[in-house]
Structure formats: C-alpha cells, structure tokens
Design brief:
heterodimer, A: mainly alpha, about 70% helix, B: alpha/beta, globular, Diverse_Catalytic_Enzymes (chain A)
C-alpha cells in the first residue's frame, strides 16, 4: 500500500510528480496550512499533509487525469467540464492508491481546494486559503488576503474567492458555479454570526 | 383509466465492470426512495480519450444486462450508448423525459458528487426536469447541500470498485461475490482485464 514511511519519502514521491516551481509552491502551501491550522484550531498534521498532496496531479497530462476520473465513474459533467477542476478530484483518488492516504478529511481538503464547496470544514478552508497566501504567491491583492488570514479565516477566503471570480469575469472566462455558491455560503454565514 | 406515473431511478456509470457495490446502491435507492424501477445506464466514453481504452460499449452493456437479469425492477438502458458521442446528463435526461411521459426520473449519484452538482452542464434546467438521489455514507452531513432537489438515502459502507475488480482479475485472483456470478463468467469467458 503506502510506499513511504517518513516525511522525506512522501516528499520524494510528491516531487517526482511535478516541476520545480510547483514543488516549491507545494512546500509553501504545506507550511502555510500548518500555520493556519494552528492559528484557527484545525489539525496541523492533517493540514500539512493535505498541503503536500493538494496538487499531486496538477502537472499530469490531462489524458491521464481523464482516465482516472472515467475509471472511477465520475459524471460526464466533470469530464466534459472545466479541466481546472480535474487535478483536485483526480488527486483525491490517486493519493489513496499511490500513497495509501485514507483519511477522509485530508482527501476532502484535496478534492475541494480549487473550488471550495458549500459547508466547507475548517481543514478545507485552511488548505484553500493556504493555496492563495503561501509565501511564493504574488498576485494583486494577496497582501490583503494574508492580512485577513491572521485573524479571520472566513474573511480571507471570501476575499480570495471573490477576487478569483472578479479576475475570471474581467477576462471573460467561466466562473465555476460551485465557487459562487461557496462564496454565497460564506457570506450568509458571516451575516448569521453577526446577527447573534 | 390513466396509468400511475412511474418513478424511475437512473444509475449512470462506466460499468467496467458493473459490480455488487453498484447493485447494492441501486437496491438501497429503490427501497428508501420508493422507486418503481432502477435503470442502469452505461456511459459512452470516447475511445481516443483513454490510453488503454475501456472494455467496448456492447460488452459493458452485456455485463449490465447479465447483472440485472434476476431483479424484477432493474433494467439496462443503452440510451447513452445509442447517442452520437458522449452526452451530458442534461441531454440524456431531456430525451428520456420526452420519450417516457408516463415516468418521472431521479438520477442516482454518489454523496461526494452532490456538492459539485451546481457545476454540471445546464444544472438549473436539469434540476427543474429531474430529481437527484444522493448515496450517503454513514455519518455524512446531509443537511447542507446546494438546492433542495436532492434526496439522500443511507448506504452501508462498502469498498468495492471497478478498479479493484480489474486489478484482481489482472492478478488472476478471485472476484467471486464482488460481481454477480453471471458477470464473473462473462469476464472469464472473454478474458477481460487479464
């Protein structure tokens, strides 16, 4: 089953899947995820692990990801839809078979790190935000997300997802419906918590 | 006298091969959602998109037919295989609804997939046309789902997958009780997955 016993062995497997830049990003996400987990009360070990694994399939050929998704009876909508979604879904499948990762929370965090989902767990939010703010990230607005992530994870995620959608709209690219639903979900939760 | 509207559950999948986990899921959905019938619908997969290629469509359909033969409420349908190229669920369902005005349809999906339903092709229109049945594993939080169009049914935990069956067949190991007897024979006769 699992072909790794130590962190170094796991990282060697991860490193073999991707180019240098992606690997550097991966390490950054793991470190940020661990930090955010400790700050907001998620499991830092699981957060770090999900960080190492979140982009496991990102650099794989699309054909290979497609085959994995087909083999696991994923619906046509995923297969015919946005390819950007594939690496997260394929990744959650592949780390089970390749690395023997079975923890459902870690697998969920990998699966939804790109889109988010309605009713995200704390760990899922941590990994999603870490993916945006890891130290190698450099896009307009990243500083503001980093600042929010020091005190308010939901606010950071709302800004990050909102920014992504805004960017996509400006470029006239498709917005994942799920990202919008996640955004709305987070906003309405915020309102509820303010109401008390 | 007008016939009662029949409630049909649709189980889509590659079915390469169909296995007891699929049948278990369909039976739970049938019972808990009070379906009159479950139709198993093998999906068309473009051959050029896979590296090794899947078992051909007629063989996948044949395995499904063998698997459902002994259940009075299970049927196989080749509707997606008959269409040209791969179909979105929307297109298939639109055709089904049109061809069967005496039926209403629910699409059976894995609990995991419920959350990405809004990403499906023409989801808004699809969800006005049909319902969804989500297969929930024990402990799944079924309260928070997008929309109110999903009925959850409880599933026992099982860990059978087509991948597992192909891997076992490739190693020459037993797949008895993982797939129906007739499917097992068909796989052996045709030397699939060897």
């Amino acid at each position: 089953m699992s072909e790794w016993n130590t962190r170094d062995e796991l990282l060697a497997k991860v490193r073999a899947q991707m180019h240098e830049k992606r690997y550097v990003h991966t390490l950054g996400v793991a470190a940020s995820a661990r930090e955010l987990a400790a700050r907001f009360g998620a499991d830092p070990e699981k957060a770090e692990l999900a960080g190492y694994l979140h982009d496991y399939c990102k650099c794989w050929p699309v054909d290979k990801m497609f085959e994995i998704l087909v083999r696991h009876d994923m619906p046509a909508e995923l297969l015919e839809g946005e390819k950007e979604l594939w690496h997260a879904f394929a990744g959650a499948i592949v780390v089970q078979s390749d690395l023997g990762i079975t923890n459902p929370e870690v697998l969920q965090a990998i699966r939804y790190h790109t889109t988010g989902r309605v009713g995200m767990t704390l760990l899922e939010k941590v990994v999603c935000v870490a993916d945006y703010i890891e130290p190698n990230r450099n896009f307009p607005g990243v500083e503001e997300i980093r600042r929010l992530a020091e005190t308010d994870l939901d606010a950071a995620l709302i800004l990050a997802l909102g920014g992504t959608m805004q960017f996509l709209i400006e470029k006239q690219k498709t917005v994942f419906p799920l990202t919008l639903l996640t955004y709305n979900d987070l906003i309405s939760l915020k309102k509820e918590s303010r109401r008390v | 006298m007008k016939e009662r509207i029949k409630h049909i559950g649709i189980m889509g999948g590659t079915f390469d091969p169909i296995h007891c986990g699929h049948l278990l899921a369909a039976e739970q959905a049938r019972e808990q959602a009070k379906l009159d019938e479950v139709w198993f619908m093998p999906t068309h997969i473009p051959p050029h998109k896979t590296r090794e290629g899947l078992t051909s469509a007629p063989h996948r359909l044949q395995m499904v037919e063998l698997a459902v033969a002994d259940h009075e409420s299970f049927r196989a349908t080749d509707i997606e295989l008959r269409r040209e190229g791969p179909s979105y669920t929307y297109d298939t369902m639109e055709q089904l609804v049109r061809e069967h005005p005496d039926c209403r349809f629910s699409f059976i999906i894995g609990g995991d997939m419920v959350e990405i339903l809004p990403s499906w092709h023409r989801y808004e229109e699809l969800s006005r046309m049909i319902h969804f049945i989500g297969l929930a594993r024990p402990g799944t939080d079924v309260k928070r789902v997008p929309g109110d169009n999903v009925t959850f049914v409880e599933m026992p935990v099982w860990d059978i997958s087509s991948t597992l069956i192909r891997a076992r067949a490739a190693e020459g190991r037993s797949i008895r009780y993982l797939v129906p007897r007739a499917v097992e024979r068909y796989i052996k006769e045709n030397r699939f997955y060897e």
